[in-house]
Structures are given as structure tokens and as C-alpha cells.
Amino acid sequence: MTSVSTREPTEVKKSGGFTASAANYIDERTSVSGAVKELGRKIFPDHWSFLLGEVALFSFVIILLSGSFLTFFFDASMAEVHYDGSYAPLKGIAMSAAMQSTMDISFDIRGGLLMRQVHHWAALLFVAAIGLHMLRVFFTGAFRKPREINWVIGFVLFILAMAEGFTGYSLPDDLLSGNGLRIIDGLIKGIPVIGTWFSFLLFGGEFPGTAIVGRLYSLHILLLPAIIVALIAMHLLFVVVHKHTQYPSAGHTNKNVVGYPILPVYAAKAGGFFFIVFGVVMLIASFVTINPIWNYGPYDPSPVSAGTQPDWYIGFADGAMRLVPPGWEFVWLNHTYSMNILVVLGVVGLFIVTVMIYPFIEAWITGDKREHHVLDRPRNAPTRTAIGAAGVTFYASLWAAASSDIMATHFHLTMEGVIHTLQATTILGPFLAFYITKRVCLALMKKDREIVLHGYESGRIVRLPGGEYVEVHQQVDDFERWKLVSYNDQKPLMLRPNANGKITVPEQVRAGLSRWFFEDRIAPVDQVELDQAHGAHHTEIEGSADKPAQISDK
Amino acid sequence: MAKDDNGGADNTAADSSSVARVEQSTGTSVVTRSAVGNPGFPPHRSRVTDLDPKADRNAERTVYTLFYLSIAGSIFAIAAYMAFPIVPEDMGSVRLNNLFIGVGLTLALFGLGIGAVHWAKALMYAHEGIDERHPVRGTDVVRARAVEIFQQANEESGFGRRTLIRNSLFGALIAFPLPAVVLFRGLGPQDQDPVALLKTTLWEKGTRLTMDPTGVPIKASDVTLGSSFHVIPEGLIDLGHESKLAEKAKSAVLLMRLKPEDLIETAERASWSYDGIVAYSKICTHVGCPVALYEQQTHHLLCPCHQSQFDVTNQCEVIFGPAKRALPQLPIAVDAEGYLIAQSDFTEPVGPSFWERS
């Protein structure tokens, strides 16, 4: 490598030290120098929003570390025992071995409670970080070619992360997690034809049975993590293959990637950031209790406490179930159709499938086959940003509904009022969010145009000889201007007959969608406009970044 | 600029000399010739540590101090492990153990993390580097060679020519995982009929209503006006662990006494209550949570999971929420000794709906 040794050139000349011979030993057996050559100075762009994916990755590592510790003490058995641990209020109570071993981890093993809390907090952070990372990727258009497949991999990871969360949440076999499983059982039973049998397969007989914890344990610590590790490896491999995207900025092009090399800067920053993320999780786990199963007690199908809440990432599904109006179930031809369950499964399923295939939909509409490595500023893709805002609003409404009872009691509202309001926001909210977001994006683009053509308001007021007061407009510099003019401009598709002289229905749909996407269009300022604006100023006062204001009079 | 695979050439945005690319459709994108040109990189801005040797020394001191702090944190965590043992039945000791080990580890992690990041940001060589991008697709030569290899493999194996071999191979590959699917049948019970099981509970004619969880039988005279009892069938607590929870998940009952004139009862169910005492399944007809919250004033039952509400005065019909069906009623009577007993099992399956329910 060319520039590593500029500071201390003498270091390279030395040889025969331990490091050199160790490196030689390893390279002669692994050819690892090739990997160092390829990756060692690979460039990664810098931006705070690129850290969200790192947070997800690092919290997964934290989960693996703390989870491995927990497996040494956890007993995934539903055999009945009578609790004899340190926690006095539950002494002698019948519970499963799973619950007892979780109690022991919490109250009889030093540092055990800490590791449990690290594991749980990191799991909550894991799903949250993936979600935010996905939003970043969505709103900046980082899913465009060539990254569509990596979007799908990331999406599958998001689903698997929720599955990991739910299976882990169910393992202690406490009252709250047992009720969660009871809901899953009820959902499955509502599925036509196979529901009843599938429930019996899952639970090994009638709910709750004595098999489910062991089975979820296999999924939780073996099958799901193995798939997640494999998919993360693929996800990162594609990041290397594609090279990271970058924000529009002076000097950034679609053919380069600008940033810091892996060795040393990126390695130090990312490595250090891992410990910071770990530190944050550790700090929270030291001070804030999570999932106090000793307060809930062992699972029993009869009692339940008010104000039960799932972990946050299940909230949207739980909330969706709460929003179903009464009476959505019917019997037809001697079979029960639980629409109060099926509609929820259908709507939530449709929502997440739309998220998964969105890159392909947009690619189809634009017909743009080029690679895109420079990100969109969200405002410069108004319809996409508005769709994202609508999706976020929809998800948020469902999510809020999972706390409908707590909102009602907390703010002294009626249960019915809260549910009806959230039903309204779930259906109307996305439309409103779409409209507002799109208008805001277009307004921001107009503002950008205005700044490029006429400069920004400097806040300096000048009195003209005639007594008139005007505010000095200052030109943005070339580098700043580039960010405002370099976006990807799109216009609606012009429908033309194909080779057979026909306009096909899919093309009509595509044209309709592209009109919906790109009808409201604000083109970027081009050089001609720029020259005109700067060459022919009327009675306008202009100042540039380095020159004081000049008064130009036609 | 730090260089890597550009062979030392300074690459700027305006540089258009890169390799010729395959022309690809721009779709609805507008490509204009008069677009504003990329101005190239802004001038490099030095950090204070680059300009001021004192700031550089300060930053170095900060970094190694943070690393030493990290070591101190790790040692503190080990010491805390020993100094704050868990004393059985002393919850305060658990809290201290958790807190001090955690604080030590937090310090160890933050020292390492912040130290490394500060090192990178304040002291490491601060010029950005540039990598050139190449199209993700393989070059035409490589792709042609790949196609050639597949063709060669096809010829040498006869994969495309010997269609019987190929098709039977596909068949075999599709058939071979099927036994694995069948093996998973073993997850479910072999000798049970789920539908029959879901339609019956432990309740039968003469079963006494007993308190949950003690199993003490309940006399009608114990159930005062306005009170409610969580009820399980007599004999449930003597069952083995496995069947106990499964049976309880079906047979849990809520017992309430209202003024007889408040109850609206259909003619066929008039004899199912006893002097204003009614018993209803506690398992929600939505997805099976226990409907455990009884509002004494309004005689409403609320399911805490999804907020379905049932009206006890009106045979537990749904008045709000996602549930559709009323909670099943358990017909009750009083035996010779004054204890409450069931007249029969529930007359319909309890709990969440299922396909074969009706």
C-alpha cells in the first residue's frame, strides 16, 4: 500500500520481528495478504445515518455474547418444579423448570440479572436499529439498483429479528409470555382448514402442553441465529461488492466513493462505536429493569394483569388486532370464518410484503436501469418520501393501538374513544401524511431552486440611496450549490405503442403510476438558468460569500 | 488525498475519463446536457490537532487516559463481582450486584469505545480517500467466459440433450425432501382428535365449582351480591402438571352474583343461573386471553389483551372490541349441601374460534 507508511518509513524496513514472522507464517498458510490488499484500504463514506446499520450489527453481536452466557444456565423444560430459590414471594410456587432457571439467573447467579437485561435491552435495540436503518435506506433511495436484493435480505433480517424477539420473550414461561403464546394459539386456530391441526402440531397437543418452550428454544438459539448470521454475512458481502452509497456532495459522483479507509480510520471508528453501543446497553441494563418475570409469576391460563404490553416490535400486530370492529366472524357451510383474525393477518401481511417489494415496483415505474450510488435527498423524491411517511403513519397507528388501554386509563379517556380515534388515524392518517409530506417536499425543492438562483437571505438590511430598504441576498458557494442542483430528475412516462403497434395494459398501469409519481415535478436548476439568473439581475442586491454586497442596477 | 486503487491519480467528480460503460436505459429520468457541473472537492480543512501541537498532545493524553479508565472499569467489575455477592432472599444485594458489575463494565466499554473513536477523529491521518466504482456486472469478457463454461458443462454432461435424465433428476430432487415434511407430523399428538378435545372440558354434571387456585368448593351462600370468584372445576388441582394447565385453559370460569332482576335471560337459559349467580367461561372468544377484569358497577367484563367487552347482564354478549361471540355460559345449580355444581359441560366450545367449531 502506498500511503500507510508516510509517517514512519523506518518501520517498514525492519524485518524479522515477532509480528513480521507471525504475519509471514499465517500468510504462507492462508494467503491472507490478498484480503488485506483488497480490503485494508477500502473506502467507507462517513455520515451519522450510516451508523444505524452498524448499531443493528453491533447489538446483534451483544445479543450473541450475552445469549451464550444465558444458555449455560437456562433450562428449556416445562417440567413442573416448586420454586426454592432466593425470591421469597414465589417460594414453593409450582412453575416450569424454564421459569425457575430464569429466576435463578436473575436472583442466584452473580451478574446473571445483568446479562439477562443486557440480552433483552440489546434485543429491543436490535429490532429498533434495523427499523431505523430500513427507513434511512428507504428515504434516501439506497434500495435502487444494484441494491434491490440487499434490501430484500435486510427485510428478511427484520422479520427474523422479530421472530427471534418473540421466541426469546416466550422462553421464561412466565405469565406475560404465556399470554403472548395464548394469543398466537388463538391466531393460528383462526386460520381456515389447517388452523386447529397446526396449533396442535406447534404445541404438541392442547395448548399450552409441555413442548412449546423446548421447541421455541431450538428455534431461538439454533435455527434462527444460524439463518441470521448467514444473511448478515450476505448483507455485508453485498455492501463490499456494491461499495457503500454516499450523499450528494461536491466531488461525490456515481463513479466514486469518498470517505475514510478501513485501516486505520474506519476500523478505529467502527470498532470504537461497537464498544460505545455495548456501553449504552450495559448502562441501561445496570439501571433499568426489563421484563421482571418475578412480578408476573409463572404461566397460568386463568389470571392476567391489566395493562399487558408486548415488546415494542410486536406492538403493531397486537394493535392491529385491537382495531378490528366487533362482529367480524361468520359461519358458512358449517365452518367458522374468523375475519377478526384473517383480516389482520391479511392487512399486516400485505403491508410487509409491500415493504419488501417496493424497490421492484419503483424500478418498474421508472424503468431506470442505471446503477445509483449517490443517494437522494428525501425531498428530491417527493412521492417516494410521501409513500414512506404514509407507511410510517400506518405503522405508528397500529403500534399506538397496542397501548390503547394504557392511553385510556392514563389520560382518562374512554376505551371506545381511543379505539375509534386510532381506527380513523389508521385509515385516514396515511392519506393525510402522504399529502402533507409531498407538499412539504415540493416546497423544499422550490426553496432550493430559489436559493440557487437568487441566493439566501443574509439577514443584512441595506438602505438604498432612494431610501428603500432591501435585504442582501448572498450567493451559495459552488460546493453548497451542487447539493441543491445535482438530484435525479424524473418526468411521467410517455405512452407509446410497442413494436406491434399496441399499448399494453401493464404499460398503461405503469404510465398511470409514473404520472402519480412524477406529475408534480420541480426540475433542478441547470447551467443556462443559473447563468441567466446571475448574469441579468434587475434591481436586486447580491453579495457572494467572499465579496460584500454589490448594488447592481440593470 | 489518500490513494488506494486509483494508481495515485487524483480523481475528481468532473473527471469523465473512466472506462466506457454499457449504455443503460434511463427510464423516466431526465438527462440534460446543460446540467450544472460538479465543482469537485472543496478545499481540505485542517483540524485543530493538525495545526496546534498542544492540542495534538492533549488529544493523545485524552485517548490513553480513556483506555486506562477502561482498564480500571474492568477491574472494578471483577472487584464488584466479589465485593457484592448475592445474599439469599436479600433483594437489595441483587440490585447492588447488578448495579456495580454493570457500572464497571459500562466504564470499561465506554473508555474503549470513546477512546478509539477520539483517536480516529482527532489524531489519525485526516484526508479522505477515493475509491473508483466499477459496474457491478461482470465485464463482457468474463460474462462470455461464464456462458461458455455453462455451455461446455451442458455439452459434456448432456444435461440439455438427455432430457429423461434431467427430468427424472428434477423429480427426484423434488421428492426427496417430502419424507422430511412427513416426519414433522410427529410434532403433533398421534392419538388425539383436536376437534373433540376442543369441544369438551372438565366440567360435567355434578362437578363442584371450586376456587382458583385453592380448590375449595364454593357454597351459594358464600357468593354475596356484587362479588365475583375465579373458579376451576373440582379435581383440577389433583391432575398431573401436563393436563392441569391444558384443562385449566378450557375450564376456567368466572362466577358473579347480580340482582336477579338485572339479568336478561332467554327462556332456555332461565334455569342456568341460581338466584342471580351466573357462571361464564373466562376464556375470551377472540384469541383466548383470560377475561379477568370485572367491572362491578356496569356488570361488564373486559379482556385486557384486546379490550373486548362483554355484558354480564345480557348473557355476556359482546358490546365492544374484536370478539364476535358471547362468552359461553356454564349451567349451574346447587347440590344438597348447598355447594354450587355444574349442570353439565359447556354447551358450546370455549375459547377462540376454530375452523371446525360449528
UniProtKB/TrEMBL annotation, chain A:
Stretch list, region Disordered: 533-554
Lineage of the species this protein comes from: Bacteria, Bacillati, Actinomycetota, Actinomycetes, Micrococcales
Compartment annotation: Cell membrane
Cellular component GO terms, alphabetical: plasma membrane
GO molecular function: metal ion binding; oxidoreductase activity; quinol-cytochrome-c reductase activity
Catalytic activity: a quinol + 2 Fe(III)-[cytochrome c](out) = a quinone + 2 Fe(II)-[cytochrome c](out) + 2 H(+)(out)
CC cofactor: heme
Record's keyword terms, sorted: Cell membrane, Electron transport, Heme, Iron, Membrane, Metal-binding, Respiratory chain, Translocase, Transmembrane, Transmembrane helix, Transport
Protein name as catalogued: Cytochrome bc1 complex cytochrome b subunit
From TrEMBL, chain B:
Membrane topology recorded in Swiss-Prot or TrEMBL: Multi-pass membrane protein
Organism domain of life: Bacteria
Alphabetically ordered keywords of this record: 2Fe-2S, Cell membrane, Disulfide bond, Electron transport, Iron, Iron-sulfur, Membrane, Metal-binding, Oxidoreductase, Respiratory chain, Transmembrane, Transmembrane helix, Transport
Annotated segments matching region Disordered: 1-53
GO cellular component: plasma membrane
InterPro entries listed in its UniProt record: QcrA_N, Rieske_2Fe-2S, Rieske_2Fe-2S_sf, Rieske_Fe-S_prot
PROSITE patterns: RIESKE
Domain spans labelled Rieske: 250-341
Record bears the keyword Secreted: no
Pfam families for the chain: QcrA_N, Rieske
GO MF term set: 2 iron, 2 sulfur cluster binding; metal ion binding; monooxygenase activity; oxidoreductase activity, acting on paired donors, with incorporation or reduction of molecular oxygen
Chain ranges passing through the membrane: 66-87, 99-120, 169-188
Compositionally biased region (Polar residues): 16-32
PANTHER family per the UniProt record, alphabetical: CYTOCHROME B-C1 COMPLEX SUBUNIT RIESKE, MITOCHONDRIAL
Function: Iron-sulfur subunit of the cytochrome bc1 complex, an essential component of the respiratory electron transport chain required for ATP synthesis. The bc1 complex catalyzes the oxidation of menaquinol and the reduction of cytochrome c in the respiratory chain. The bc1 complex operates through a Q-cycle mechanism that couples electron transfer to generation of the proton gradient that drives ATP synthesis.
Protein name: Cytochrome bc1 complex Rieske iron-sulfur subunit
Organism: Cryobacterium frigoriphilum
